[in-house]
Amino acid sequence: VDKPDFSYKTGRYPLTRRGWLFLGVNGGPCDRKCKHCYYAFQKDFIFYDVKTLKMFANKFRYYYGLEYADLTGGEPTIYPGIEGVLEHMAMIGLKSTFITHGQNLTRKKVKSYESAGLGDYLISLHGLEKSHDSIVNQGGFKRVVRNLDNLGRPVRFNTTIMNLNYKDLPGLAKFLSQREPSVYNMINFNPFHAWSLKTEIDFQEKNSTMAPYIKEAIDILEEKGWEVNVRYMPLCIAKKYGFAKNQVGFYQVPYDKWEWDLAVTHNLRQEQIYKLGGRERAQLLIAHNLVAPRIHDPRMPAGRRCGICRFRLICDGPPPQYQRRYGVDELQPEIGELVTDPMYFRRNYQQKQRGEEKWNSTSMAKERI
Ligand code: SF4
């Protein structure tokens, strides 16, 4: 099993300054029941009170020095009095994002949130009308699309990719491409919590089946100036289908400004972060701890295959549940010099864009990511 050594690149890329302002116990309540919800099997959803959320906001801003926080866990638009939290966040310089299904964003509510200081929205759009409605609720697609007209702040979009919607991805990309360029995330379903104990998950799809549609969607949106991220896809599959540069897994999260600082999410104290070698190294070690049981343990099916791969220190591989269900035949390890830079593919792509074919110390000095 590899011992990660990421020290050589420390400080080369800006780290995320964003945290996850979790709204309640077990995620907090939501007024919809999306098929793939991480908390589908959890009960006892309770929101924290406003005072507790303000305390979390203070901790993010003053203890960890964060600048952004995503309000999510449950559904922020059903939290009574969330405006008080938004006002507080604005006052202390912590920019707020709602991660929301967008169903309740009426003109009146939006006005109230935005006047209280809400920074932007990250909206779940899980396919075109038929697929989205089958995943979220009947009439949901039309409602969220109508509500988009009410928003006066920037909007980004999320789609959790699964068998119910992957064929929609190019169509959805065409639909989004008519808007101002923004950010679009295609998120591979992560079997967290109770999902991890299952083998069959009826809405799940094989990565290599979804990959060509993902690539088509990327091409459509990138041509129009959108930033497109694909979250939690094994790198060999992303590479085979031509979107390794778009892949963001646990090892890339620390460098993604839209993602949550892993050390903060894992509630590390500052002295622990210091002992682990600082914010960057602490996050990479957390990423490694999350991934190691999947692909670094030779007793796992992927462990045997990934153990020889040169990308094994920057790749999530598939989760254990996925390995049990689909096996690991679609993984294609690449033999060669071990890659330890999580931004390897994005950096190479950007260098190529600048006409710098070869990675060398001069290009390193010029690099701005
Ligand atoms: S480590 Fe495994 S999953 Fe990742 S690129 Fe290599 S073979 Fe594929």
Structure description:
This protein is of the alpha/beta class and 369 residues long. It contains 15 helices and ten strands. Strand 5, helix 3 (107-115) and strand 6 (120-124) form a beta-alpha-beta unit. Helix 1 packs parallel to helix 2 (82-92) and helix 6 packs parallel to helix 7. It starts with 17 loop residues before the first strand and ends with a helix. Bound molecules: iron/sulfur cluster (SF4). Iron/sulfur cluster (SF4) binds next to helix 8 and helix 12.
Summed up, what is this model?
With 369 residues, the chain is of the alpha/beta class. It has helices at 50-63, 82-92, 107-115, 129-135, 140-148, 169-176, 207-223, 235-240, 262-265, 270-275, 279-295, 301-306, 320-326, 344-353, 361-366, and strands at residues 18-22, 24-25, 46-47, 68-72, 95-100, 120-124, 155-161, 183-188, 227-231, 247-248.
Give the overall average pLDDT.
91
- Amino- and carboxy-terminal Cα gap: 31 Å
How many helices?
15
Radius of gyration, in Å, reads 20 Å
Q: Low-confidence segments, ≥5 residues, pLDDT <50? A: 359-369
Element-level helix/strand string: EEEHEHEHEHHEHEHEHEHHHHHHH
Q: Rough shape?
A: globular
Number of strands: 10
Largest sheet: 8 strands, parallel
Widest beta sheet: strand line-up: 1-4-5-6-7-8-9-10
Distinct ligands, ions and cofactors found in the model: iron/sulfur cluster
Q: Give the fraction of residues assigned to helices.
A: 25-40%
The SS-based structural class is alpha/beta
Relative strand content: 5-15%
